[in-house]
Amino acid sequence: MKTRIITAVVALAIFIPILWLGGIYIEIASAVLAFVGVSEIFIMKKMMVIHPIAILAMLMGVALTLPDTFFKGLWLNKNGLFYAFILILLVATVFYNQTFNIEDAGVIAICTFYVGHGFFYLTAARDKGLPYLFYALLLVWTTDIFAYLVGRKFGKHPLDPVVSPHKTWEGSVGGTIAAVIVVLIYNAFVPLQKNLGILIIATIALSIIGQIGDLAESSLKRHYNVKDSGKILPGHGGILDRFDSFLFVFPCLHLLGFF
């Protein structure tokens, strides 16, 4: 527990100023997080991160975090670059067919896209403004904390016994209710939405989406039979362990029209 607390304090001491400053600082941070996050996919798959495919995937993850303006004037835009990446993965299934198959290519393509775009929308949320960014942070953190506390105290019915046996329906509902309450208090001081009904519905949806993101990453770890996605954060695991909910929530914030 002591290690977890120290790591959390140090991480926040670094992360919060970066979020506050925004601009190039958060773009660099998002790129670094995506690079490490994609590398964790290969670590879980027990593939060497110095393998050419791994290096290419990590660089693609970084490219996906970059703003669209970065690609102006280049012969390939972001979509074209990702399509070229897909083609390279498919070609690799031909020339490395003994060690790299179509399932490997599929996992790497999906996870690279999911991680890269997730951190891209972290930057996009900050560009829209700190109120929207901190809305997402509060929503996810509150859901996580109270899902744990309520689940530990009152949890009896497993949310998903196979993927994450310690999470419960009671905790999930408790976390979502707490997120709504905290967001309404936040909205009273930092107005995001005048229509409280829309804000409540959006918060419930995003709280659930964040929990699904957590379960999706747990499913990935369960598939590869690992406890954590990495070890870069002592006591907390890897980057994907800490950002799993955010990688779902930030893109959905965009899809819901927040920015």
UniProtKB/TrEMBL annotation:
Query: What protein name is recorded for this chain?
Result: Phosphatidate cytidylyltransferase
Carries keyword Iron?
no
InterPro entries from the entry?
PC_trans (IPR000374)
Question: What EC designation does it have?
Answer: 2.7.7.41
Q: Which GO terms describe its molecular function?
A: phosphatidate cytidylyltransferase activity
What Pfam families does this protein's entry cite? CTP_transf_1
Q: Which reaction does it catalyse?
A: a 1,2-diacyl-sn-glycero-3-phosphate + CTP + H(+) = a CDP-1,2-diacyl-sn-glycerol + diphosphate
Cellular component annotations (GO), alphabetically ordered: plasma membrane
Transmembrane intervals? 6-36, 48-66, 81-98, 105-124, 130-150, 171-190, 196-216
Q: Keywords of this protein's UniProt record, alphabetized?
A: Cell membrane, Lipid biosynthesis, Lipid metabolism, Membrane, Nucleotidyltransferase, Phospholipid biosynthesis, Phospholipid metabolism, Transferase, Transmembrane, Transmembrane helix
- Any Gene Ontology biological process: CDP-diacylglycerol biosynthetic process
How this chain sits in the membrane, per its record, is: Multi-pass membrane protein
Report the locations given in the UniProt record.
Cell membrane
